[in-house]
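FAQ: What does the model actually see?

It sees only this:
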Amino acid sequence: MSNLALQEKFIENQVLRNQYIQKTDVMNKVKLLTLLPDNEHMTVSMVAEYYEVEIKVIQMIMLRHKDEFEQDNVVILRDEELKKYKTTYLQDVGTLRRVNKLAIMPRRSILRIGMLLRDSEIAKQIRTYLLNVEEFASKEQRSKSMDHLGTWTPKEEMILLDCFYSTINNGGSLNEAAKKSSEKINHTKNACIARYNTHLKLVITDENFFRKVEQNKRVKGSKPSLKIVQVEEAKAPESTQSIDNELLNQIHYSQTIIIDDMFKKNSKLLDDVFKLKDENRILSIKFKEFESEKAINDILMMDKDRQLELLNEKIVKLTEELETVKKKSNSYKSKLNTIQSALSGKPTTKKNSPQQQTERKGKSYKIKDGVPVFD
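And it is asked to produce this:
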């Protein structure tokens, strides 16, 4: 059965999914998981980001296979449970502090999503890794998968280098060196040859090594008799052998330093990559917090403008009411004066205007027969 057909089996067969559901460590070998601060769970949006698909795709899969995800202990936190979880784990995750409902998915359910996603490249790689490395592959396939994933350890590299140097310097071929290496480490002969061609060959700087590789090829090709080889070995002076061994040790030491330096640099680069990913995640969270705060500030500013507008309207209305009250007050005062005059028996007198006073000023008159007569 082809690898593609076996991958389809994961999507179609729940029994097969349950058979592999414990192998959650394979996810980090394909793509590094970014978990919540409890180091056990992810949110639905984080799972969608990991598999590089939309959130609604994850939600549809979870709804379609609800029973399986319930068995995997997918939990929806609310009320007191959510409050307790926020207090314990989400103090530094601003965007999640404001939610009133949160679904958290453990590693098993995250892996199950990878078994069920049809169009995610990350999910396809996880299923391929499960098939090729865990169960269905031969030793050679496992080695190829591990090569592809870069899982050769520095110790294995050193053993490989040592086997190739010792075999070549003793008249052996590359195939013999690879076979000898495969007996000491968990990689096949073909994988060792491939590793030599893609990695070791690039870091070995000793030209004598490559000349001996070519020389050994020619010797093997001419098929010399055992007798000739023995005579040549018998004629070899001891001083030459000691020089060769000393040279081999020097070369081996120099290559060890080069390889160690190479692995240190690679390790530092990986640390820098992980650090940048963490910084990017933190910046993303801070940016979302900033957007939320900006939206809240905009709403508050709109409320302030509306409140100011209402206040101005109230001021205008109160001013109009004050004018009305003043008019009524003047009217009441006039009526009060009239009533007081009536009660006291004194007629109300109107004051002459300044113009009338000016016109009459300086003139005298007498009342005669009820008519004023001016002098």
